Amino acid sequence: MGLSKLFLLRTVFGLLLPVALCAHSQAFGASESILWNFNGSDGSTDGLIPFAGLIRDASGNLYGTTFLGGTIGFGTVFELSPPSTIGGD
What is the pTM of this model? Predict the structure, then answer.
C-alpha cells in the first residue's frame, strides 16, 4: 500500500472513530458529567491540570494526579468518592 493511501486511510479512520464511539455511547444512554473543577490557579490547593488516567478501587473511589498545584505547586494526588445516595453530593 502506498504512503498516500495509508495516510488517507489513517485520516478517514481518525475522523470516523470519534463519531462511531459517540453514536455507540448515545445508543446505550451513556452521558458525561463534570465530577470536579480543579481550581489550583486561584490559590486553592486542589491541584491544576489533571494528569494521566484514573484508578478505581472496589468501593468506586477514583484516584488520580494533577500536574501542578497543591501546597507547594508540584501537583497533587486526589480521590473522588461516589455519593452515598444516587444523585446525592
Answer: 0.57
